[in-house]
Automatic annotation (TrEMBL):
InterPro entries: HTH_LacI, LacI/GalR-like_sensor, Lambda_DNA-bd_dom_sf, Peripla_BP_I. Transmembrane segments: none annotated. The keyword Transcription applies. This is LacI family transcriptional regulator. Keywords: DNA-binding, Transcription, Transcription regulation. It holds the Pfam family Peripla_BP_3. GO terms for molecular function: DNA-binding transcription factor activity; transcription cis-regulatory region binding. CDD domains: HTH_LacI (cd01392), PBP1_AglR_RafR-like (cd06292). It comes from the Bacteria. Residues 15-69 form the HTH lacI-type domain.
Length: 352
């Protein structure tokens, strides 16, 4: 149904920018600024224009705007396939916050499939850019030697990384979660309960994220003057592989295990049950990610919760700032995760 203007006359037609300006008592340019550069207006003027827009149900002609600005108002985010036997942390919270905050700023997030090898992802970028399908990118799953930041930077394409670049020379915009703080908090919690032989089950060395979480365990153990020699095991992010990897450490008198993911923690659960021991009662277990299954395990899994909603909003904020001012100094945001204590680590050693 067509919208009608309050001017009467018997004609149904959509309200125009000029009518909004008339209703608000400002110039058409001021209305345009309210829509495209609201920071240029005084608060009272901006509110008056927005009130007129709402009263008239005015909607800018999006197609004309895109033609004028040569902008798609789309932000690309590549989604990688998950290899068989490998679990990935649930990212719905991050993607929802990213999409919602982008939408509030007038953008949309375009999810696109990328090859399993991250190094091949720029090929997808090139295709999207040729078709003018996106204006900017958010890149995830960063790693040492990642070619994507340089590829985008050389072409002056705005981007932000969800994850550190892991190379000292890289200075782009990024948002990440402080994994070392998370595993360190887990060790602090277990040490306060009286644990002295606290193992770490992580991923193979070389993963930036995995090495960061291992560093947090190692540094916290040093703070508490606890031994680490022979107390670290590695596994790919797979339940059965984790069960095999943690087995030898459980036979060395370990009373607690900190893991790099909830998937690895579940493998630890299975290894304990295989040996006739009970997670939480005989050996404390702490995961990482606070996945949907963590609270439903028996016993409920203590884990490190990542602030994924805040990460999504921060990525949008940094990316929009980069689009607005390509020459601005890079900004980095390191977010602090939260330790969620549940039954798998609730009791002290003496109570076992």
């Amino acid at each position: 149904m067509a919208r009608t203007t309050p001017s009467g006359g018997g004609r149904d037609r959509p309200p125009t920018l000029a009518l909004v300006a008339q209703r608000a008592g400002v110039s058409p340019q001021t209305v345009s600024n309210a829509l495209n550069s609201p920071e240029l207006l005084a608060t009272e003027t901006l509110e008056r224009v927005r009130r007129a827009i709402t009263e008239l149900d005015y909607r800018p002609h999006q197609a004309a705007r895109l033609l004028r600005t040569r902008s798609s108002l789309l932000i690309g985010y590549g989604v990688q396939p998950t290899p068989d036997g490998v679990a990935r942390p649930v990212m719905e919270h991050f993607l929802h916050a990213l999409s919602d905050s982008a939408h509030r700023a007038g953008y949309r997030v375009l999810l696109f499939a990328v090859p399993a090898a991250v190094k091949d992802e720029p090929d997808c970028y090139a295709e999207l850019l040729r078709e003018r399908s996106v204006d900017a990118f958010v890149i995830g799953n960063t790693y040492r030697g990642d070619p994507r930041p340089d590829w985008l930077r050389k072409r002056d394409i705005p981007f932000v990384s969800f994850g550190r670049p892991w190379a000292a020379r890289e200075q782009g915009d990024w948002v990440d979660v402080d994994g070392a703080h998370g595993t360190g908090a887990a060790v602090d919690h277990l040490a306060a309960l009286g644990h002295r032989r606290i193992a770490f089950l992580g991923w193979p060395r070389g993963s930036g994220t995995g090495d960061d979480r291992a560093r947090g365990w190692r540094e916290a153990m040093a703070r508490h003057a606890l031994p680490v020699r022979g107390l670290r095991a590695a596994s790919r992010d797979d339940v059965e592989a984790a069960r095999e990897a943690i087995g030898p450490l459980l036979d060395r008198g370990v009373t607690a295990v900190v893991t790099a993911s909830d998937t690895l923690a579940l493998g630890c659960y299975r290894a304990l049950l295989d040996s006739g021991r009970t997670p939480g009662r005989d050996v404390a277990v702490v995961g990482f990610d606070d996945s949907a299954a963590a609270a439903m395990l028996a016993p409920a899994l203590s884990t490190v919760r990542q602030p994924l909603e805040e990460a999504g909003r921060s990525c949008t904020r940094l990316l929009l700032a980069r689009i607005k001012d390509p020459a601005a100094e890079p900004e980095q945001v390191l977010l602090t995760p939260e330790l969620v204590v549940r039954d798998s680590s609730g009791g002290g050693v003496s109570g076992r």
